[in-house]
């Protein structure tokens, strides 16, 4: 696959953003390539297109599959695995959001709940610290509750909601 300057720019930037979000740069670049690709690609094609070692591609593809961002496709008469990314940006957004929630927020919520419970019996921890832990827990519970509600909306409704922007603030101010 030959990359155009625009495609290359997108893939490189996606890799940079991935590294800022704590995702390996190559993993993010492979995801970007598969997202933009008009047809599924095998690992060798990905390796050649991005100039990345084949072993790195294999490891990256496994990670992308574990996130649910990439799936394996088989072609009749070809023993190689081909890969394709989800193409709908809302699907990608929710897959990433759900995985981050599962990997980051859920364990944090568990820890905060434990801290609140332990803090009730802990006489050495100051009331200020206990209050801040409780506030953090309540905030994250609100965020995850809001996320669960938003997650149930269809993309068309979500787009309309986002387009309302500051109009929601005005509606709530009345």
From TrEMBL:
GO molecular function, one term: DNA binding
Name of this protein: HTH-type transcriptional regulator
Keywords attached to this entry: DNA-binding, Transcription, Transcription regulation
Pfam families per the UniProt record, alphabetical: MarR_2 (PF12802)
Record domain HTH marR-type: where: 22-80
Family: Belongs to the GbsR family.
